[in-house]
TrEMBL record:
The keyword Cell inner membrane does not apply. Its cofactor is pyridoxal 5'-phosphate. Keywords: Aminotransferase, Pyridoxal phosphate, Transferase. PANTHER family: HISTIDINOL-PHOSPHATE AMINOTRANSFERASE, HISTIDINOL-PHOSPHATE AMINOTRANSFERASE-RELATED. It comes from Candidatus Gottesmanbacteria bacterium RIFCSPHIGHO2_01_FULL_46_14. Residues 51-360 form the Aminotransferase class I/classII large domain. The lineage of its organism: Bacteria, Candidatus Gottesmaniibacteriota. This is Aminotransferase class I/classII large domain-containing protein. Gene3D superfamilies: Aspartate Aminotransferase, domain 1, Type I PLP-dependent aspartate aminotransferase-like (Major domain). InterPro entries: Aminotransferase_I/II_large (IPR004839), PyrdxlP-dep_Trfase (IPR015424), PyrdxlP-dep_Trfase_major (IPR015421), PyrdxlP-dep_Trfase_small (IPR015422).
Length: 369
Protein backbone atom coordinates (compact mmCIF):
# COMPACT_ATOMS: atom_id res chain seq x y z
CA UNK A 1 0.00 0.00 0.00
CA UNK A 2 1.11 3.53 -0.69
CA UNK A 3 1.92 5.79 2.24
CA UNK A 4 0.27 9.18 2.52
CA UNK A 5 2.26 12.22 1.42
CA UNK A 6 2.78 13.18 5.07
CA UNK A 7 4.07 9.70 5.95
CA UNK A 8 6.36 9.63 2.91
CA UNK A 9 7.79 13.03 3.80
CA UNK A 10 8.46 12.01 7.39
CA UNK A 11 10.06 8.70 6.37
CA UNK A 12 12.26 10.48 3.84
CA UNK A 13 13.48 13.05 6.36
CA UNK A 14 13.66 10.89 9.48
CA UNK A 15 17.05 11.20 11.15
CA UNK A 16 19.04 8.64 13.08
CA UNK A 17 18.73 9.05 16.84
CA UNK A 18 21.01 8.41 19.78
CA UNK A 19 18.61 5.78 21.19
CA UNK A 20 20.03 2.26 21.03
CA UNK A 21 17.99 -0.92 21.46
CA UNK A 22 18.07 -4.67 20.97
CA UNK A 23 20.59 -7.13 22.35
CA UNK A 24 23.69 -5.69 20.69
CA UNK A 25 24.83 -4.10 23.94
CA UNK A 26 24.24 -6.90 26.43
CA UNK A 27 27.06 -6.83 28.96
CA UNK A 28 27.79 -3.14 28.35
CA UNK A 29 27.72 -0.49 31.04
CA UNK A 30 24.70 1.52 29.86
CA UNK A 31 25.13 5.23 30.52
CA UNK A 32 23.13 6.22 27.45
CA UNK A 33 19.59 6.09 28.83
CA UNK A 34 18.43 9.00 30.97
CA UNK A 35 16.69 6.97 33.67
CA UNK A 36 17.92 6.95 37.30
CA UNK A 37 19.51 3.92 38.94
CA UNK A 38 18.03 4.17 42.42
CA UNK A 39 15.80 1.49 44.01
CA UNK A 40 12.06 2.03 43.85
CA UNK A 41 9.92 2.64 46.91
CA UNK A 42 9.49 -0.45 49.14
CA UNK A 43 5.75 0.22 48.98
CA UNK A 44 5.82 -0.86 45.35
CA UNK A 45 7.04 -4.37 46.12
CA UNK A 46 4.22 -4.81 48.62
CA UNK A 47 1.68 -3.53 46.10
CA UNK A 48 2.90 -5.87 43.37
CA UNK A 49 2.84 -8.76 45.82
CA UNK A 50 -0.82 -8.04 46.56
CA UNK A 51 -1.85 -8.10 42.91
CA UNK A 52 -4.06 -10.98 41.86
CA UNK A 53 -4.83 -12.54 38.50
CA UNK A 54 -8.03 -10.50 38.48
CA UNK A 55 -5.98 -7.30 38.48
CA UNK A 56 -4.64 -8.27 35.06
CA UNK A 57 -8.18 -8.78 33.79
CA UNK A 58 -9.46 -5.39 34.87
CA UNK A 59 -10.33 -2.81 32.26
CA UNK A 60 -8.29 0.32 33.05
CA UNK A 61 -9.98 3.42 34.41
CA UNK A 62 -10.18 5.56 31.28
CA UNK A 63 -9.83 8.76 33.35
CA UNK A 64 -6.99 7.48 35.60
CA UNK A 65 -8.64 9.08 38.62
CA UNK A 66 -6.50 7.40 41.29
CA UNK A 67 -3.29 8.22 39.44
CA UNK A 68 -4.37 11.78 38.69
CA UNK A 69 -5.18 12.34 42.37
CA UNK A 70 -1.72 11.07 43.34
CA UNK A 71 -0.13 13.36 40.74
CA UNK A 72 -2.28 16.24 41.97
CA UNK A 73 -0.95 15.79 45.48
CA UNK A 74 2.67 15.37 44.35
CA UNK A 75 2.79 18.45 42.10
CA UNK A 76 0.22 20.48 44.05
CA UNK A 77 -2.04 21.14 41.07
CA UNK A 78 -5.76 20.36 40.72
CA UNK A 79 -6.51 16.88 39.35
CA UNK A 80 -8.73 18.40 36.66
CA UNK A 81 -5.62 20.08 35.22
CA UNK A 82 -3.91 16.71 34.66
CA UNK A 83 -4.14 14.28 31.74
CA UNK A 84 -2.35 10.92 31.79
CA UNK A 85 -0.98 8.95 28.83
CA UNK A 86 1.30 6.04 28.02
CA UNK A 87 4.44 8.12 28.56
CA UNK A 88 4.94 11.84 27.94
CA UNK A 89 6.14 10.95 24.42
CA UNK A 90 2.50 10.32 23.56
CA UNK A 91 1.72 13.97 24.25
CA UNK A 92 4.74 15.06 22.23
CA UNK A 93 3.21 13.21 19.28
CA UNK A 94 -0.37 14.30 19.99
CA UNK A 95 -0.03 18.05 20.55
CA UNK A 96 1.22 18.90 17.02
CA UNK A 97 -1.58 16.78 15.57
CA UNK A 98 -4.11 18.84 17.49
CA UNK A 99 -2.71 22.32 16.98
CA UNK A 100 -0.81 22.26 13.67
CA UNK A 101 -1.82 21.94 10.04
CA UNK A 102 0.55 20.93 7.23
CA UNK A 103 3.09 23.72 6.54
CA UNK A 104 2.44 25.37 9.93
CA UNK A 105 5.52 26.48 11.87
CA UNK A 106 6.94 25.35 15.20
CA UNK A 107 10.03 26.58 17.05
CA UNK A 108 12.72 24.54 18.80
CA UNK A 109 15.88 25.71 20.53
CA UNK A 110 18.71 23.30 19.71
CA UNK A 111 20.39 21.23 20.96
CA UNK A 112 17.34 19.64 22.55
CA UNK A 113 15.18 16.52 22.64
CA UNK A 114 14.96 15.15 19.09
CA UNK A 115 11.29 14.15 19.33
CA UNK A 116 10.19 17.79 19.35
CA UNK A 117 11.26 18.32 15.74
CA UNK A 118 10.28 14.81 14.72
CA UNK A 119 6.71 15.22 15.97
CA UNK A 120 6.34 18.40 13.91
CA UNK A 121 7.73 16.72 10.79
CA UNK A 122 5.23 13.89 11.21
CA UNK A 123 2.35 16.30 10.66
CA UNK A 124 4.15 17.96 7.71
CA UNK A 125 4.90 21.01 9.80
CA UNK A 126 7.98 23.19 9.45
CA UNK A 127 10.60 23.56 12.17
CA UNK A 128 12.22 26.94 12.79
CA UNK A 129 15.40 26.36 14.77
CA UNK A 130 17.40 28.54 17.11
CA UNK A 131 20.73 27.37 18.47
CA UNK A 132 22.35 28.01 21.83
CA UNK A 133 26.13 28.20 21.91
CA UNK A 134 28.87 26.43 23.80
CA UNK A 135 30.43 29.81 24.56
CA UNK A 136 27.26 30.74 26.47
CA UNK A 137 27.13 27.31 28.14
CA UNK A 138 24.09 26.41 26.03
CA UNK A 139 21.95 29.00 27.80
CA UNK A 140 18.84 30.35 26.10
CA UNK A 141 20.00 33.94 26.29
CA UNK A 142 17.79 37.02 26.39
CA UNK A 143 18.66 37.60 22.74
CA UNK A 144 17.48 34.12 21.80
CA UNK A 145 14.25 34.60 23.76
CA UNK A 146 13.66 37.93 22.00
CA UNK A 147 14.34 36.33 18.60
CA UNK A 148 11.98 33.45 19.39
CA UNK A 149 9.18 35.88 20.25
CA UNK A 150 9.71 38.03 17.16
CA UNK A 151 9.92 35.02 14.86
CA UNK A 152 6.84 33.43 16.40
CA UNK A 153 4.79 36.57 15.83
CA UNK A 154 6.07 37.18 12.30
CA UNK A 155 5.55 33.58 11.14
CA UNK A 156 2.29 32.61 12.88
CA UNK A 157 4.11 29.93 14.84
CA UNK A 158 1.72 27.39 16.37
CA UNK A 159 3.99 25.64 18.89
CA UNK A 160 7.14 26.63 20.79
CA UNK A 161 9.02 23.74 22.40
CA UNK A 162 11.03 24.29 25.58
CA UNK A 163 12.85 21.72 27.72
CA UNK A 164 13.66 22.49 31.36
CA UNK A 165 16.19 21.30 32.34
CA UNK A 166 17.25 20.82 28.77
CA UNK A 167 18.05 17.41 27.34
CA UNK A 168 20.95 16.85 26.54
CA UNK A 169 22.79 19.84 28.03
CA UNK A 170 21.24 19.87 31.51
CA UNK A 171 20.97 23.67 31.32
CA UNK A 172 17.93 25.46 32.70
CA UNK A 173 15.68 28.20 31.37
CA UNK A 174 14.37 30.63 33.95
CA UNK A 175 10.68 30.96 34.70
CA UNK A 176 10.91 34.66 33.78
CA UNK A 177 12.03 33.74 30.26
CA UNK A 178 9.29 31.14 29.89
CA UNK A 179 6.70 33.66 31.06
CA UNK A 180 8.05 36.25 28.63
CA UNK A 181 7.45 33.88 25.72
CA UNK A 182 4.00 32.88 26.97
CA UNK A 183 2.84 36.48 27.44
CA UNK A 184 4.24 37.83 24.18
CA UNK A 185 3.15 35.16 21.69
CA UNK A 186 -0.06 33.37 20.80
CA UNK A 187 1.76 30.07 20.18
CA UNK A 188 1.19 27.07 22.41
CA UNK A 189 4.27 26.89 24.64
CA UNK A 190 5.09 23.29 25.57
CA UNK A 191 7.51 22.95 28.49
CA UNK A 192 8.97 19.47 28.88
CA UNK A 193 9.94 19.05 32.54
CA UNK A 194 11.03 15.41 32.23
CA UNK A 195 14.18 16.02 34.29
CA UNK A 196 12.83 18.80 36.50
CA UNK A 197 12.05 16.66 39.55
CA UNK A 198 15.57 15.23 39.69
CA UNK A 199 17.30 18.57 39.35
CA UNK A 200 18.59 21.46 41.44
CA UNK A 201 15.58 23.54 40.38
CA UNK A 202 12.98 24.39 43.00
CA UNK A 203 9.20 24.21 42.79
CA UNK A 204 9.03 27.99 42.38
CA UNK A 205 11.03 27.68 39.14
CA UNK A 206 8.57 25.27 37.51
CA UNK A 207 6.24 26.37 34.73
CA UNK A 208 3.38 24.66 36.60
CA UNK A 209 2.62 27.99 38.26
CA UNK A 210 1.63 29.39 34.84
CA UNK A 211 -0.89 26.81 33.63
CA UNK A 212 -3.94 28.30 35.33
CA UNK A 213 -2.94 31.88 34.58
CA UNK A 214 -2.41 31.51 30.83
CA UNK A 215 -4.26 29.59 28.14
CA UNK A 216 -1.27 28.90 25.87
CA UNK A 217 1.03 26.76 28.00
CA UNK A 218 1.24 23.07 28.87
CA UNK A 219 3.78 21.28 31.05
CA UNK A 220 4.89 17.70 30.41
CA UNK A 221 5.96 15.34 33.19
CA UNK A 222 7.12 11.73 33.08
CA UNK A 223 7.66 8.92 35.57
CA UNK A 224 10.57 7.51 33.55
CA UNK A 225 13.23 10.05 34.50
CA UNK A 226 12.11 11.12 37.96
CA UNK A 227 10.96 7.78 39.31
CA UNK A 228 12.73 5.17 37.18
CA UNK A 229 9.48 3.70 35.81
CA UNK A 230 10.60 3.59 32.19
CA UNK A 231 9.00 0.23 31.48
CA UNK A 232 5.65 1.20 33.00
CA UNK A 233 5.18 4.16 30.62
CA UNK A 234 3.32 6.88 32.49
CA UNK A 235 3.39 10.52 31.44
CA UNK A 236 1.36 13.62 32.24
CA UNK A 237 0.27 16.85 30.64
CA UNK A 238 -0.64 19.62 33.07
CA UNK A 239 -2.57 22.53 31.58
CA UNK A 240 -5.66 24.69 31.97
CA UNK A 241 -9.04 22.95 32.01
CA UNK A 242 -9.88 23.82 28.41
CA UNK A 243 -6.71 22.20 27.09
CA UNK A 244 -6.99 19.15 29.32
CA UNK A 245 -10.55 18.60 28.09
CA UNK A 246 -9.30 18.62 24.49
CA UNK A 247 -6.48 16.20 25.31
CA UNK A 248 -8.82 13.85 27.18
CA UNK A 249 -11.11 13.76 24.16
CA UNK A 250 -8.32 13.07 21.68
CA UNK A 251 -5.88 10.75 23.42
CA UNK A 252 -6.30 7.03 22.91
CA UNK A 253 -8.86 5.35 25.21
CA UNK A 254 -7.58 2.87 27.82
CA UNK A 255 -4.07 4.08 27.04
CA UNK A 256 -2.69 3.56 30.56
CA UNK A 257 -3.06 0.02 31.91
CA UNK A 258 -4.58 -0.76 35.30
CA UNK A 259 -1.20 -2.05 36.51
CA UNK A 260 0.57 1.13 35.37
CA UNK A 261 -2.01 3.25 37.18
CA UNK A 262 -1.56 1.26 40.40
CA UNK A 263 2.24 1.38 40.21
CA UNK A 264 2.31 5.09 39.38
CA UNK A 265 -0.02 5.95 42.25
CA UNK A 266 2.08 4.06 44.81
CA UNK A 267 5.33 5.67 43.67
CA UNK A 268 3.91 9.20 43.63
CA UNK A 269 2.51 8.78 47.12
CA UNK A 270 5.91 8.00 48.67
CA UNK A 271 7.31 11.52 48.66
CA UNK A 272 9.81 10.74 51.42
CA UNK A 273 11.48 8.05 49.28
CA UNK A 274 11.57 10.36 46.24
CA UNK A 275 13.29 13.13 48.23
CA UNK A 276 15.87 10.70 49.57
CA UNK A 277 16.65 9.25 46.15
CA UNK A 278 16.74 12.67 44.48
CA UNK A 279 19.37 13.85 46.96
CA UNK A 280 21.39 10.68 46.40
CA UNK A 281 21.29 11.23 42.63
CA UNK A 282 22.40 14.84 42.83
CA UNK A 283 25.17 13.97 45.29
CA UNK A 284 26.38 11.27 42.92
CA UNK A 285 26.23 13.70 40.00
CA UNK A 286 28.46 16.16 41.85
CA UNK A 287 30.95 13.38 42.60
CA UNK A 288 31.13 12.29 38.95
CA UNK A 289 31.52 15.82 37.62
CA UNK A 290 34.27 16.66 40.10
CA UNK A 291 36.15 13.52 39.07
CA UNK A 292 35.77 14.31 35.37
CA UNK A 293 37.13 17.81 35.91
CA UNK A 294 40.36 16.23 37.15
CA UNK A 295 40.91 14.54 33.76
CA UNK A 296 42.78 16.98 31.53
CA UNK A 297 41.67 15.69 28.14
CA UNK A 298 37.94 15.54 28.96
CA UNK A 299 35.81 18.66 28.57
CA UNK A 300 32.48 19.22 30.29
CA UNK A 301 30.23 21.15 27.93
CA UNK A 302 28.41 23.19 30.56
CA UNK A 303 27.12 23.11 34.13
CA UNK A 304 24.14 20.79 34.53
CA UNK A 305 21.10 21.18 36.74
CA UNK A 306 20.18 17.51 36.52
CA UNK A 307 21.66 14.01 36.09
CA UNK A 308 22.71 14.22 32.44
CA UNK A 309 25.59 16.17 30.94
CA UNK A 310 27.72 16.41 27.81
CA UNK A 311 31.42 15.61 27.59
CA UNK A 312 33.98 15.36 24.79
CA UNK A 313 37.66 14.58 24.43
CA UNK A 314 40.05 17.24 23.20
CA UNK A 315 41.38 14.74 20.65
CA UNK A 316 39.53 11.63 19.57
CA UNK A 317 35.98 10.32 19.51
CA UNK A 318 34.80 9.87 23.10
CA UNK A 319 31.81 7.78 22.01
CA UNK A 320 33.98 5.26 20.14
CA UNK A 321 36.67 5.21 22.81
CA UNK A 322 34.13 4.32 25.50
CA UNK A 323 32.33 1.88 23.21
CA UNK A 324 35.60 0.00 22.72
CA UNK A 325 35.71 -0.36 26.52
CA UNK A 326 32.15 -1.75 26.66
CA UNK A 327 30.64 1.49 27.93
CA UNK A 328 27.69 2.80 25.95
CA UNK A 329 26.94 6.52 26.10
CA UNK A 330 24.68 8.61 23.87
CA UNK A 331 26.39 9.82 20.73
CA UNK A 332 25.35 13.45 20.26
CA UNK A 333 27.64 14.07 17.32
CA UNK A 334 24.48 13.82 15.18
CA UNK A 335 22.34 16.11 17.36
CA UNK A 336 21.11 19.31 15.75
CA UNK A 337 22.92 22.30 17.16
CA UNK A 338 26.05 20.37 18.15
CA UNK A 339 26.68 18.30 15.01
CA UNK A 340 30.27 17.10 14.60
CA UNK A 341 31.39 18.73 17.86
CA UNK A 342 32.32 15.40 19.42
CA UNK A 343 29.91 15.45 22.35
CA UNK A 344 28.46 12.42 24.11
CA UNK A 345 25.79 12.47 26.80
CA UNK A 346 26.43 10.77 30.12
CA UNK A 347 23.71 9.69 32.55
CA UNK A 348 24.64 9.55 36.23
CA UNK A 349 24.32 6.04 37.64
CA UNK A 350 25.35 4.26 40.86
CA UNK A 351 28.71 4.85 42.54
CA UNK A 352 30.04 1.51 41.27
CA UNK A 353 29.03 2.29 37.68
CA UNK A 354 30.29 5.86 37.88
CA UNK A 355 33.60 4.66 39.33
CA UNK A 356 34.03 2.35 36.34
CA UNK A 357 33.37 5.26 33.98
CA UNK A 358 35.96 7.46 35.70
CA UNK A 359 38.50 4.65 35.67
CA UNK A 360 38.07 4.14 31.92
CA UNK A 361 38.16 7.89 31.20
CA UNK A 362 41.48 8.12 33.04
CA UNK A 363 42.89 5.21 31.03
CA UNK A 364 41.91 6.78 27.70
CA UNK A 365 43.16 10.20 28.76
CA UNK A 366 46.04 10.00 26.32
CA UNK A 367 44.31 7.93 23.63
CA UNK A 368 43.26 9.21 20.21
CA UNK A 369 40.83 7.45 17.86
Amino acid sequence: MKLSNIAQNWTRNKKNTYVKGGNDFDGFLRLDIGEPWFPLTPDLERTLGNLSVDDFKKRPDIHCLKLRNAASKFWNVPAENIVVANGSDQFIWLLPRLFMNPADNAIVINPTFFLFSESVTRVAGKVISFTTSLSNKFEATEQIISDVINTANQNSVKIIWLCNPNNPTGSAISLDKILKIVKNTSALVIVDEAFFDISDLTTSESALSLVNKHTNIVVLKTMSKTFGLNNVRVGFTIANKELTKILEDWKLPFEVSHIAQEVGSVVLNDVVHWRKMKQALLTERDWVINKIREIKSIELASPTKTTIFLIRKNEGDIFKLLLNKNILVSNFNICKGIEDMGFARITVKSRAENTKLISVLKKIDDCVI
